[in-house]
Amino acid sequence: MKYLSLSLLFISIVGYSQNRILVDGIFDEWSDHPVIYSDAAGDGGFLGVDFGELQIFNDDEFIFFLLEIGSEINLQDLNKISIFLDTDNNSNTGFSINGIGAELVYSFGERSGLFYYANGSSEIFHSNIGLVSAPTVSSDQFEIAIKRDISIFGNPLFLGDSVSVVFQDNTTNGDFLPDINEAITYTFSNDVLASLPDYSIQKINESDLRILSYNVLSNGLFDAARVPAFTRLFQAIRPDIIGFQEIYSFSSAQVADQIESMLPSVAGEEWYHSKVEPDCHAISKYPIVQSASIQGTGNGAFLIDGPNTETDLFLIVAHPPCCANNIGRQIEIDLMMKFLRDAKEGIGPIPLEANTPIVIVGDMNLVGFNEQLETLLTGDIFDEVTHGVDFNPDWDGNALLDSRPYIPGLPLSYTWYSEESDFSPGKLDYIIYSGSNLILQNSYSLFTPSLPFDSLNAFNLLVNDAVEASDHLPVVADFEIKNSTAIKNSLIKQDFGILKIYPNPSYGLTEILINIPQKDFIIIQLMDQKGREISILNQEELNNGEHKIQFDSSVFASGIYFIQIKTTDFTDVKKLIID
Predict the structure, then answer these.
(1) Alpha helices in 213-361 (DSSP H)
(2) Which class is domain 497-578?
(3) Whole-prediction pTM value?
């Protein structure tokens, strides 16, 4: 008898110091990182999965993979692709495959896996390993992130400074990456990386227009158990215009009243409102001039008398069909873009003046074909016979832009999160805008579990507010309107809070003029752009009326800060620049 000796080729790659990886379904930053393995073309199974290039990277929280699939699929459904990770560098422990012993086996299409430990194995899901992948729509390549500092049932997942990895398409004659009898070993890097994407919970510039898109999950805005979390979130975000989805059982007037109770308007203001059945609402500090249902859908179009511009703002609030209904979702998105094309041509229910800023928000449910996102951004109508020709949706002939909100403090971009679901976090909600006349200044998806404690404290938030309020996160974007030449409807200055900071920009003696409506204990804080407390400038009980607070700004580094005043009943924030 002959004994076959299997020679294993271990490909060892040391962590490579380059730009930070952001799991957002946009792969540009991977071009700065080496390809670790290139799988041969044409050796895939009959279902079309044919692995190509693999790249691996890490930061201090995650290990990242960029995997080429070879055909357009949805990674979270209808496939048999699995990842095998040997996390203890011992081929004699775990699941044996390609000469490694994998402690972690996870099947993406089945959305579950197994964790092997000394006494056996246990089933695990995305929440057990902090798994996030992108894009959520179909693609032929995917970014995958797995948390490094996680423990499963009390057992640390990663035990050493390296990990071995195998991918397999578990179908008949399915492909392996690397090839059979090969494995890849990646050594973690401890290099210092570039900063995470900037965000500011408060506006950076008070004159910016803050837009919020929010699916509040089954009338959740009126659920007594969730109202406190919503209230804290709205008081931290302080939006100017809100596009709500999934408020079915209440009128827009009731929604506006509920927002008023959570975020009271100041003297001379009110919350304007409009609803398109069954569930899309526009709530705005500025008058809603027109509204219309987009024919054949439950999506709404609204013309808003926006601030600081001679033209109005055109807002679409959308909630296309969910899940496997790709056909219905594409039809609604085609109709949405047809409505925009007609509006730009001066026809239809809401004809637009040239260069009217365009914003499309909502829970788009983009979990299927990538074509739907392409239609939204580029105006590429899928069914041109029924819905008319393709068009360039921005006024300058370009595509619309995605605000690309990231999770504060994480290299991840998702807007839906549910530990109870077997689907891992995904990007379902969007704020899309016309770059010809809107400048994006700031954007984020507010995931309170990722915020540092000082930010939570500064904005009176609790760590689980975002996940207790809804399974969708509040998605925020701040815009500067280009070429504003007239003030149509500026905000009336509130009669309490921070009235003035002088001088601003400042260096040295700085005065803060405040007004409080009643005798109260006040705290005045200096905060950075991420809402973290830098210093308490003053805390004392004051009588009602105006007061002048002084401090020396020269003791702080140059940069953009925020002054926040907090009393028993209200909070106010103003921007301060220290030269």
Answers:
(1) 227-237, 252-262, 326-344
(2) mainly beta
(3) 0.81
